[in-house]
Amino acid sequence: MSWILTNDIYDKKSNKHYEGAYSQGNGYLNIRASFDEDLSEASQNDTFWRLPANVTLEKQRHTLSKWGIYIPGIYGNHPILGEEIINLPYPLGINLFYEGERLDMNTSSFTEFNRQLNLKNGLLQRELNWVTEANNIKVKYTRYCSMATKNMIVQKIELTPQNNGEIIINSFTDSDVTTNGYNHFKEIDIDKECQSVFITTDTDQQIGIHTDLNIVNENVKDNKISIIKNRLNNDTVLQLTVYKKIVIEKRTYFATSIDIDYCGDIKKQLENKIIAYSYEEDLQSHNKIWEEKWNQSDVVVTGNEDVQTAVRFSIYHLLRSANDKDTVAIDAKAYAGEAYFGHYFWDTEVYLLPFFIYTQPEYAKKLIKYRYNTLKGAKSNAEHYGYRGAKYSWESCITGREQCSSWQYADFEVHVTADVIFGLIHYCKNTNDEEFLINEGLEMMIETARYWMERTYKKGDRYHIQGVMGPDEYLAFTNDNTFTNYMVRYTLQATLETVSLAKVKKSDVLSNLNITEDELNKIEDIVNNIVLLVDKDDSFIEQCGNFMEFEDIDIDKIWLDKKRPFGQFISQERNYRSKVLKQADVVALLYLFRKDFDNKMKKNCIDYYEPITTHDSSLSYIFHSLVYSDIDEQEKAYNMLEKSLGIDLTEKGAAEGIHIANCGGIWQALVMGFAGLTNCLESDELKITNKLPDEIDSLSYKIYFKDSWYDIYVDHNESRVTPL
Ligand code: BGC
Q1: Which atom of ligand 1 is the closest one to the Cα of 582?
Q2: Does position 32 have pLDDT exceeding 90, yes or no?
Q3: Whose CA is nearest to atom 5 of ligand 1?
Q4: In sequence order, which residues have a C-beta less than 8 Å from that of residue 380 and are 6 or more positions away?
Q5: What CATH number should be reported for the domain whose range is 4-290?
Q6: CATH code linked to domain 298-723
Q7: Which of 29, 199, 480, 655 has its CA 20 to 30 A from that of 6?
Q8: What backbone torsions phi and psi does residue 527 show, to the nearest 5 degrees?
Q9: Is 473 one of the catalytic residues?
């Protein structure tokens, strides 16, 4: 069961959730699992202004269905939201009209409904027995994004009529779609002869989409191509014979002006991409690629089906949303929806990257390279704010320039700049990739260090970082957020070490970066004198300066319905000055630097902060689970994991996309938490400390650690590390 996700009761209210949860992808494109046919009451072209409110507090639009086809790297310019991912024309359309009656999941009668996603190979299937006035027809849909032919989506539809009759198969590509209520298509050119649609976006990128419909049947009575508004239709009339199954295969091909092999002519490009492999051949190669991915990344859980399903669901989405390009990363919704506009956050380095570093290092490198490729944007951010160096964006997209339109986060959530360097160090250390560290990484380090030299403020002997928001977004304007200051100190220390390494190994690279002795002295001074509100005597870390002065509030009295976020029950003004947290902040620090703090400190802090944390962000529970594991409070560690397992599964939270940071967190909670794997920043040697909770019998997985592969196994009697 744990490989196959199943939904067998159609409820139109949760349809949008399944579209997100069963999303597919192949490293080139991603698609939501919307139905092939039109759905009544679910228009796809609504236009509205999506405001830059915090998406967790915002009201959902398109409540029944939202088509979504995204090619990371294809982006538009939204007047308010900035650079955003574009929802492309929907080419997967197949309407069925039987004796004049259209299949519509919201109004038709059907029995035996079932839809499934196979996590093993990303195959999406739907089956139903459609009961029409005139007939019963068994319909089975299969769809996959080919891992073997990256620019191709394949659909197969099998129809088995229970009577003779006439059916019209209306295959369509609809360009009348919006992204977050906005139209990014500057030009739409529909080519009837070639069954293709060509789009020019408002950023002048080009996309070509071609569909091939293949119906092997001698009873085709008619075929007609038409264009109605922005929809290209291909209608085939077929005579069905009782019990005689017919199979329809539809292939959709994409070509874009950002493909590396782009030849300057999008039509030609599209033609070049069309292949002749059979369905079976392509599917076989596709399955093989998925098998290789799982072979490196699977986590096998025994004794707990919920955990097994959730971790495989998480790994599936991490694998399918990881891109083959290094000019994009993985957005906060894993390209399974438009919330967060296709933007990249600190989620990438802190929540997602460890999974890739330890199981798919070549994808980890792409994510790091994305940050190198957007260094120019980070430099222009720093300049915009009046600083030297580079400031990574709170919300980053294609150029790396700040895309967050809410100033509180854009201006103050500066820890992301240090988190990016933390991710870089983590990757380089595990892969021993010194070449990359010095050739590219050092420039990122020096430029961000230049930013910190100016963003810190020296008062007396001590350095402060004033006016910041830490990971906890319910305290917006604080001074000396310990998480931020600690991260900054760590990355500046690493910068000094990398400079020393470069002096010995590649002095030419260093001299090109023009770092002066004065600058190096200043970095060292910050490292030695930055304020850290870590009280070793009292074993306590204050989240930020004056945290204790914030108002104590009665959280339970305000939070009347805990199924909704706390943030909806309090004004932002009051929230920002009260002792209530959105998410792990000090607790995140305790996990990321767990070797630096003893158990007493960890226990004091988590006992204090957890009761005042609302966990309004999906990034919160999982770090609590990790800290509880670390201090041997297995029961609590499991409870916190349990709250994360269902976010995109049982709680049906995937309507607007996948909470991909939580997915990366679930992987960490098992691998780093329950199996207690020390990461390569904590130790050069691979070590595990068995922390398995009673609810799980055993865990096993493969790990890539310091350039070698290992098999890890833990159960309640033994812990094994086997070099491979
Ligand atoms: C969280 C951030 C996170 C963002 C994107 C917000 O709700 O508070 O920490 O980076 O979502 O996932």
Answers
A1: 8
A2: yes
A3: 332
A4: 401
A5: 2.70.98.40
A6: 1.50.10.10
A7: 29
A8: -55, -40
A9: yes
